[in-house]
Inverse folding.
């Protein structure tokens, strides 16, 4: 999935330099549990759209295929619905502000 994130960023003109193998190894060694999994197992609301919906939307806008992320999001939504969690659709009204904040965070620009 990190390769998909790098591809989306590249399509948006952002160069991400990361050692994907080192990140994967660190997560494996530390037995990292993503926050969305922690939310699911603790019965807390899951931030599916904030964590995955917006990146998927960015990928669609940039024309970048994200097959792994697509499957992951679908599986997360199935799990959420099985636990009777509400899966809210992405609110497109906030997409501009989100993109602006991402741009600022990555480039150091101010609004």
């Amino acid at each position: 999935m990190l390769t998909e994130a790098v591809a989306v960023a590249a399509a948006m003109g952002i160069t991400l330099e990361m050692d994907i193998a080192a990140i994967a190894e660190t997560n494996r060694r530390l037995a990292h549990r993503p926050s969305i999994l922690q939310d699911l197992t603790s019965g807390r609301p899951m931030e599916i759209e904030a964590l995955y919906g917006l990146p998927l939307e960015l990928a669609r806008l940039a024309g970048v295929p994200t097959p792994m992320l697509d499957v992951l999001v679908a599986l997360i939504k199935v799990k959420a619905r099985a636990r009777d969690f509400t899966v809210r659709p992405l609110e497109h009204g906030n997409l501009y502000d989100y993109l602006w904040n991402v741009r600022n965070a990555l480039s150091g620009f101010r609004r």
